[in-house]
Design goal:
OvoA_Cterm (chains A, B), 3 domains, homodimer, Four Helix Bundle (Hemerythrin (Met), subunit A), 16 helices, iron (chains A, B), oxidoreductase (chains A, B), paralog of FGE (formylglycine-generating enzyme)
């Protein structure tokens, strides 16, 4: 039996490269062949060209796609020097994701004959085979090892093995035919009554190190640790029978059970029951891969996330308990509580997983896992948690848009794997996510917990200006120019130490933008208030306070971006961040409450104010006697920001050049002494990988007399 | 007599600082006092407040102005630490130049009482006196010596001594009264017949070294040398009698004798005769400083430049000779031909100059200078030459807008000085210029020459973008980044030497902008063609070819600018510039004539083209076999320049990142080999004194297969 097992994802380490090469070769062949065998379920050529669902390509695309993916990644990795068939490869490269209505124009595709694609696959198989045999192999295989591209191709094909099987299940019955290799489970019976199992509180430690000995997708790396409060979990996955009560109670017609997004989906598709349920007179049958069978009531129901959530709301109403889907963290508590381990290399899984048993679900009572059943396997389990990057996340250079586009709060995690999930998919560390209306071989288990589910706080900031400022405040240095808000804050703190005898009480960072200088001032000051006209900018600082992490995409070239993550702790600011309060405000019309400061910093502010004279005329009212005003500005006066009459300088006055510094002296001289500067503080703002603003800000320190 | 001479401008060198201090003090006192004595000509207080001419301030302003100027410059030089009277000084600071109609709003001025201004002058006199006595004096006095500010104030007041005397001459007679110190010449008689004197061809060497031992205004420094062809010059200045013939011939009514600008002036003021001529029955009287006298027909006529030019055109028509005003260079030939020297320190001038004789003109027959009369003195002499900066021009930091605003082609030179011209004004190296419709104590001498008068070719480029590019191509380096077009051209030349065996024949610089790389390529290539879409950019290169010099203003802060001059010879490019031809053209639709090149350079071009794919698809047709294509670009693709479909890269293609370099390889690979690069070449574009674009251009060298 062991030899018939679908090969597990290989370990990346070892001492015998040639043995590893042979293992990878077997794994490739088995995966490539198993994928082709799936297409044996299609009844005829028409089945390749008819779309199972309108928003996705027909299966002919998916037959070619996994092969082209191999070539693309091998080209990128430098293992293949030219394309096998540029026309086919262009056609098969993209189109995996569900598209919007107007994006998938059939007329644009002139699909090749089925035989041509099979022929193409044969050539790809030979090419990959040759690459695996000929490429020097050094163990362990890390992210930058050429073999990573080979493993990526294999794991990618295993994903499509599963998603293509879903499309076949969505195909009209006349387009499919059962095959001996893809036989479903024939067991079924009455469903068990479900029950709640106590799961004690506990820690979860998620995220993998970058030298973890198994292949992973980028979003599995990094670190996430948290304490999960005690909760109760349904012993069984929700069965078709348990879900029937919801259907019969009118759950699909009860708008109160659906959130806005779910309601939108339900109305759009006019859903009245689970998608694979087939009405049959007064009863139901179930659509499997290539056949319909009498409803197996004790098999897990398959739903999308919206249906699962609506069921939980109904259940909560019925029971008065806080029923909901588990969070990703809670799923890991189930896994730990059940004492599970990943699929063994040389024995069938103790779960309906990895194609080790059937080409379908099986009764929810079949695989006990501690006090629970089906913690892994059978069908995927929807979680309440939208996918998000762990701290330390980084994209893999060969595939930088595999998970990053899903960090949008609209893709929810599925955990545990289904009967067809293999390789990485079958590992408990895997982290797949789909749009909430999407169908996979996925159902759910409900939990009872009053604890709210944490929503990922830090998605990728893609707004170009915000991302520029995030990088400006928290990112890399360019041309050797030190971080500007940090440099300015340090100068301010040094000046404060030199020119102000007293304790560092309250500081104001006016025009704080994304807040770096506010945090830096909080290293010394008791309390710092960061004020900016832009609520969007401030939100970045608030997000850092809340989550300690900031993520954004940086424009590289044209539309190409790269991904950045910055952490307050890495900047040594995690301990002081709570001392900062951010506020939206107008420096020219600041509320009276902003007063009694020992230091006011206004960096790169005054030449963007509409009334800088008014600001400077009143700023002394906000400072304690002896307090410092730190100004830094490149004096880039522009009529679009500041009317000419309001400019502080940069013009001829009484026949002589009147610089902004002259203007500052005129306006501040009555109440302030200039105690430091002027000095230049440079800064660089990155616009693209190749284009930067490089500016000199003039810094002056003024002490309020008193 | 010698003690009564109005002190000459002091030498700046010497061995006895205290003697020099005493000399400067005497000069200051004499100038300050003489200026005040001029105001003794005003009859009453109303004379101070009534404007002599509508477009200029009343004389009360000029009384205060020269005093305030001292304070302003002493403050700037750090010799005075605070203003004496900020309100008066703001009022008296600006308003010297003639203004436009809507700029001089009387209501805006609430002039102080005359006595208050006299009192202010007294305080200024004390202050300047104290500064001269107390400031350490090191000889010689150079541009950066604090005493330069003192001399500037003195020379500035001497200028206003003259211009205020013109205003008094324009005042209504009832506002003035003759004074013993300001007595006119009483000699007059019949005018001499004029005659032409042969002036042989000769060299002139104009411009002063910066260590010249006399004070000068900025536009006198630098160097201008040229060969002046032989010409003939009128022996005498044009007398009132000689000009009468023009008046009586209907010259003022004959539009053919006036150019467009002159006609505009003449019609606007309805001029029918010289401005100081007063119709008197059928005859004429002449207005002097404070009286009208019977017309002295043998005195020089006083006109503006338009009237002088009209006379010359009339004279040319009458005589059939090429009569015109002299150029500045020709005036210097007259000076050299007459063997003149500047006014002696200890004896009256041998000319009606420096107030050594009268407070008016005198007969044109009084002061012979070689074969000519009045080469200097009596009245200023209009020249055909608009003022312009000499090569090596630099502004003085204490007064950066003294001459620069007049480099506009609309201010013509006057030479030789008038009876009241003193100090620097009286020196032959002085270079004053006024608008062509302006009146001074100025007339003219005509010359006969078929040689055209060179017009200053290089005025200051003030367009911000052109000036940015001029600095980018020919200016300073910032942040240590080497000049970009030079660096790119050098890389191109090196690559050519390495990858092309043959001679460096023809090169094309596509997107040449202001042309620096074209000139740099001409160091090696036989012929270089520079092509740009912008005719304005190309004009800069053409100007450099024509004049060898380029001048522009750089934005410093707000509206404040600084002045730059760049020379082809200083860049070692004067010898090769003639090998370059500049053309306006569209890189995406280039005329067939642009072909058969050995090297094509396209620096910072492709991401600004509207059809870069078309350009690259055809560029091989323009190269000889084995020829090089050198591309450099930061790949800053923007929809505003290039439609998304035309981008060469910077997007996902077939699911993978497709960089511009990938796109270049796809488009050029068929016909070119990539022989060098990619490598980064940085560049910096200065926007203001504090704001820069800092960019990395990716450079690749492609050889056309052949």
């Amino acid at each position: 039996m062991a030899t018939a097992l679908f090969p597990r994802t290989p370990r990346l380490d070892g001492t015998d490269p040639e043995a590893k090469r042979a293992e990878i070769l077997r794994c490739f062949h088995a995966t490539f062949d198993r994928y082709e065998s799936l297409f044996g379920l299609l009844a005829d050529d028409e089945a390749y060209y008819r779309k199972p669902i309108s928003l996705r390509h027909p299966l002919i695309f998916y037959l070619g796609h996994t092969a082209t993916f191999f070539i693309n990644k091998l080209v990128l990795a430098g293992l293949v020097d030219k394309r096998l068939d540029p026309r086919l490869e262009s056609m098969f490269a993209v189109g995996v994701d569900e598209m919007s209505w107007d994006d998938l124009d059939d007329a644009r595709y002139d699909w090749p004959p089925v035989a041509a694609v099979w022929d193409y696959r044969r050539k790809v198989r030979e090419t990959v085979d040759r690459v695996i045999r000929a490429t020097p192999l050094v163990l362990p295989i890390g992210w930058d090892n050429p073999f990573w591209a080979v493993l990526m191709g294999i794991e990618h094909e295993r994903i499509h093995l599963e998603t293509s099987s879903v499309l076949m299940r969505q195909h009209a019955l006349r387009y499919v035919r059962p095959q001996p290799d893809w036989q479903p489970c024939r067991d079924s019976g009455p469903a068990p009554g479900n029950a709640l199992v106590d799961i004690p509180a506990g820690q979860v430690h998620l995220g993998r190190d970058f030298d973890d000995p198994y292949y992973g997708w980028d979003n599995e790396y990094g670190r996430h640790e948290t304490e999960v409060p005690a909760f109760r979990a349904a012993r069984y996955l929700v069965s078709n029978a348990e879900f029937l009560a919801f259907v019969e109670a009118g759950g699909y017609a009860d708008d109160d059970l659906w959130d806005e997004e779910g309601l939108g989906w339900r109305r759009f598709v006019r859903a009245e029951h689970p998608t694979f349920w087939v009405p049959d007179g007064g009863g139901w049958r179930l659509r499997l891969l290539a056949e319909e069978v009498p409803m197996p009531w004790d098999w897990p129901v398959e739903t999308n996330c919206h249906e699962a959530r609506a069921f939980c709301r109904w259940k909560a109403r019925e029971t008065g308990l806080p029923v909901r889907l588990p969070s990703e963290d809670e799923w890991h508590r189930l896994y730990d509580h059940a004492g599970l381990a990943d699929v063994p290399a040389d024995a069938p899984a103790a779960a309906n997983l990895h194609l080790d048993h059937w080409a379908s679900s099986c009764p929810v009572t079949r695989f006990p896992h501690g006090e629970l059943f089906d913690v892994v396997g059978n069908v995927w389990q929807w979680c309440e948690t939208p996918t998000y990057p762990f701290d330390g996340f980084a994209v893999h250079p060969l595939y930088d848009d595999f998970t990053t586009p899903t960090f949008d709060g609209r893709h929810n995690m599925i955990k545990g794997g289904a009967w067809i999930s293999a390789g990485n998919e079958a590992r408990h560390v895997s982290r797949y996510a789909f749009r909430r209306h999407f169908f996979q071989h996925a159902g759910f288990r409900y939990v009872v917990s009053a604890a709210p589910v944490a929503q990922p706080g830090s998605l990728y900031e893609t707004d170009a200006l915000l991302a520029q400022y995030a990088e400006f405040h928290y990112g890399d240095e360019y041309f050797g120019v030190p971080n500007f808000p940090q440099a300015v804050a340090r100068i301010a703190l040094d000046a404060f130490a030199r020119h102000h005898g007293g304790p560092a009480g309250r500081a104001l960072d006016l025009g704080c933008a994304t807040g770096r200088a506010s945090f830096e001032l909080a290293r010394r000051f008791e309390a710092v208030e960061g004020v900016d006209f832009s609520a969007r900018f401030i939100q970045t600082g608030v997000q850092l306070q809340d989550n300690g992490v900031l993520r954004y995409t940086l424009l590289d070239e044209g539309e190409l971006v790269s991904y950045r993550e910055r952490r307050l702790d890495a900047l040594g600011l995690a301990g002081v961040a709570r001392k900062v309060a951010f506020w939206q405000g107008d420096a020219c019309n600041l509320k009276p409450v902003f007063t009694a400061y020992d230091l006011i910093l206004a960096a790169n502010l005054i030449d963007r104010l509409y009334a800088p004279r008014r600001f400077l005329a009143h700023v002394h009212q906000r400072l304690n006697p002896g307090g410092l005003l730190v100004l830094a500005s490149p004096y880039t006066w522009l009529e679009e920001h500041t009317r000419r009459e309001e400019w502080l300088g940069g013009f001829k006055k009484d026949g002589e050049s009147h610089t902004t510094l002259d203007g500052l002296k005129d306006l501040l001289g009555e109440r302030f002494d200039l105690v430091e500067g002027p000095r230049d503080v440079p800064f660089v703002i990155r616009e693209t990988r190749r284009k930067f603003q490089h500016t000199l800000s003039e810094l002056t320190v003024w002490r309020k007399r008193g």
